[in-house]
Design goal:
Elements: H1 2-23, E1 36-44, E2 52-62, E3 64-65, E4 71-72, E5 82-86, E6 90-95, E7 101-107, E8 109-113, E9 123-126, E10 132-135, E11 143-147, E12 153-159, E13 168-173
C-alpha cells in the first residue's frame, strides 16, 4: 500500500509541476533541458527571534526532457500529501508550518504577509502563475496567510521527507521577480 501511495503522490506532484512550469513566468513555454526552476520560499532568519523572510530560490536540479513530450523535474522526496480546502475571504492568522514543505496551490489565491515588516509586499500565490512555494519558517512566530478570493482555495501540502528541503541556491531576498507584479 505504501508503494502505491508513493506512486500516487509522485504522479500528483508531477502533474502540478508540469502544469505550473508551462505557465511559470520564470520558465515559460520554451522550457528545455538544463533550465532551472525558480520559486519563492518563506524561511526563517538564522538568528533569534527567527523572523520569517521571503527568498527567491533556484532549485539545483535542472528540467530534463520527458520521454514523450515536454520536460520534467523531480522536486523532492516528500513524506505525505495533504489536500486542504480554505474558505473564500478567510485568514489563517499568525502561524508557521509544522514541517518544511511545498505549498502547492491548485485553485484560488493566497497572500502571505510577514509580521512586523510593513514595507514588504508579502508573497502572492496565484493559481496558474506561481502555484508552488516552499514554506519552511518553522521557528519563531511565523507568517499570516490570507485567502482574499471569492472561491474556495484548494492546495496541497507536501512536507519534505525528514524535513530536508531540496538543494537550491539563493537568487535574491524577496519573492522571485515577476511574482509581485501580478496583483
Amino acid at each position: 500500500m505504501q508503494g502505491r501511495q508513493s506512486n500516487v503522490i509522485t504522479s500528483l506532484l508531477y502533474i502540478v509541476v508540469v502544469s505550473a512550469s508551462l505557465q511559470h513566468p520564470l520558465i515559460g513555454n520554451e522550457a528545455v533541458n538544463g533550465t532551472f526552476l525558480q520559486l519563492s520560499a518563506v524561511v526563517n532568519e538564522v538568528q533569534p527571534p527567527y523572523n520569517a523572510k521571503i527568498e527567491c530560490w533556484e532549485l539545483a536540479t535542472p528540467f530534463q526532457d520527458y520521454p514523450t513530450i515536454g520536460t520534467s523535474l523531480p522536486l523532492a522526496n516528500i513524506s505525505n500529501l495533504t489536500y486542504v480546502a480554505l474558505p473564500p475571504k478567510s485568514a489563517e492568522g499568525l502561524h508557521h508550518p509544522p514541517h518544511p514543505m511545498f505549498f502547492i496551490l491548485l485553485t484560488g489565491t493566497a497572500h502571505v504577509v510577514l509580521p512586523g515588516d510593513p514595507e514588504s509586499e508579502g508573497l502572492w500565490i496565484i493559481e496558474g502563475i506561481n502555484p508552488v512555494i516552499v514554506a519552511a519558517d518553522t521557528l519563531g512566530v511565523g507568517h499570516n496567510t490570507y485567502y482574499p478570493g471569492d472561491k474556495t482555495t484548494i492546495a496541497l501540502q507536501a512536507p519534505f521527507k525528514d524535513g530536508v528541503v531540496p538543494e537550491h541556491t539563493l537568487v535574491r531576498r524577496g519573492a522571485c521577480p515577476g511574482h509581485q507584479d501580478l496583483i
